[in-house]
């Protein structure tokens, strides 16, 4: 049975800091925190849709720092979510939230578990203290490590979120963040290339010329490596890039944003693997057999992978073959 999230956005009200990149209203499309009765109505409505589609879901509180919002409001939301879990046990499998690393404690974890919290995602963003300071995060890499261990010790699933191309960032810092994430052994990771939004501190730095983030090509190459290495470590990459949003597109000044960003990175991995498979072969005409689900990744957007291989002297066509990844045959 397919698993999904019912996402409920709580913008800004739980954030004690205004980070350099942050405009939650543009990112989430939400203008105000939801009322508990609206959340209850949403969960009732979605339960029937999910059941009809033979799907299960976690109730996900995203957008702000959930464990930093006013305690009364947080418990009201958790009460609504817990009631939905009890009312629709065949549909709702748990509750997840995103929060700041410095807003996790044994006391808050005990409270969350009491309401049925199943997963917590920490907005770590970077494991470079310099990058964290420059981007006004208000926490340290050590805060991330401490919170991660507390979450795992509590029995709640750990997720980590990272950004690439922040102010003061470098490829080396991104790779170091990846390596430290892997050492923390989260169940899941989200990867967000920085999007520079108007009205943010990064937006002002960008307008002044003081800040330039990674290029699109640099970001794809880097994030493809992150995807490959996290996957190899047994960590599920559950999101790459911001969700498609007219608000983001309208407010965006620069940075890296594409509604199909993950597929582009998967396609880059496929290109690298085809190049490796062809490296010992003579230039010429080849058929690449791969499972049907991989066809678009193999060819690339607008057949860019086929064009790049052609420029190297390999005239490649891609054909489906169930269960194959890359199998080469000369034409």
- Report strand %: 15-25%
Distance between the termini: 41 Å
- Rg is 22 Å
At the first level of CATH, the class of the largest domain is: Alpha Beta
- Shape descriptor: globular
| Class per helix and strand makeup | alpha/beta
- Number of separate strands: 12
Task: List the quaternary state of the chains.
Answer: single chain
Number of domains: 2
The strands making up the biggest β-sheet line up spatially as 1-2-3-4-5-6-8
The residue-averaged pLDDT reads: 94
CATH architectural label of the largest domain? Alpha-Beta Barrel
Task: Give the helix level as a range of percent.
Answer: 40-55%
Spans of at least 5 consecutive residues with low confidence: 26-30
Structure annotation, total helices: 13
Q: How many strands, which pairing sense, and closed or not: the largest β-sheet?
A: 7 strands, parallel
SSE pattern, N- to C-terminal? EHHEHEHEHHEHEEHHEHEHEHHEE
Task: Assign the CATH superfamily of the largest domain.
Answer: Aldolase class I
Nutshell version of this structure?
This protein is an alpha/beta fold and 331 residues long.
Descriptors:
globular, seven-stranded parallel β-sheet, 331 residues, TIM Barrel, single chain, 2 domains
Structural notes for this entry:
The protein has a seven-stranded parallel β-sheet. Strand 5, helix 7 and strand 6 form a beta-alpha-beta unit. It has 331 residues and is of the alpha/beta class. The model is unreliable at 26-30 (pLDDT under 50). The protein has helices at 24-28, 36-52, 71-87, 106-114, 129-134, 141-154, 171-184, 201-208, 216-232, 246-251, 261-278, 295-299, 304-311, and strands spanning 2-9, 55-62, 92-99, 117-125, 157-164, 188-193, 195-197, 236-240, 252-255, 284-290, 314-320, 327-330. The protein is globular and about 70 Å long. It has 13 helices and twelve strands. Helix 2 runs parallel beside helix 3 (71-87), helix 7 packs parallel to helix 9 (216-232) and helix 9 packs across helix 11. The protein has two domains: 2-191 and 235-241, TIM Barrel; 281-330, no CATH class.
């Amino acid at each position: 049975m397919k698993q999904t999230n019912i996402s409920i956005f709580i913008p800004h009200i739980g954030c004690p800091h205004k980070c350099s990149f942050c405009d939650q209203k543009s990112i989430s499309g939400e203008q105000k925190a939801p009322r508990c009765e609206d959340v209850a109505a949403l969960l009732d409505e979605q339960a029937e849709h999910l059941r009809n589609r033979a799907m299960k879901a976690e109730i996900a509180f995203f957008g702000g720092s959930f464990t930093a919002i006013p305690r009364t409001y947080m418990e009201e939301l958790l009460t609504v979510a817990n009631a939905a879990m009890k009312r629709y046990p065949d549909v709702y499998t748990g509750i997840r939230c995103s929060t700041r690393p410095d807003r996790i404690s044994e006391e808050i974890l005990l409270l969350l578990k009491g309401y049925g919290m199943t997963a917590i995602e920490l907005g770590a963003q970077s494991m470079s203290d310099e990058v964290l300071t420059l981007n006004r995060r208000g926490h340290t890499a050590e805060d991330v490590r401490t919170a991660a261990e507390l979450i795992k010790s509590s029995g709640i699933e750990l997720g980590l979120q990272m950004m690439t191309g922040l102010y003061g960032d470098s490829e080396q810092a991104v790779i170091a963040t990846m390596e430290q994430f892997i050492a923390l052994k989260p169940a899941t990771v989200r990867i967000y290339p920085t999007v520079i939004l108007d009205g943010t501190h990064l937006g002002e730095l960008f307008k002044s010329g003081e800040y330039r983030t990674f290029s699109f090509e640099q970001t794809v190459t880097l994030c493809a490596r992150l995807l490959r290495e996290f996957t190899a470590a047994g960590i599920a990459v559950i999101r790459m890039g911001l969700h498609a949003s007219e608000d983001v597109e309208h407010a965006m000044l620069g940075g890296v944003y594409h509604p199909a960003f993950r597929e582009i990175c998967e396609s880059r991995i496929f290109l690298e693997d085809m190049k490796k498979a062809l490296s010992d072969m003579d230039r010429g005409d080849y058929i690449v057999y791969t499972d049907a689900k991989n066809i678009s990744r193999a060819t690339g957007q607008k057949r860019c992978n086929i064009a790049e291989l052609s420029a190297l002297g390999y005239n490649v066509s891609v054909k489906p073959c169930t269960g194959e990844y890359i199998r080469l045959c000369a034409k």
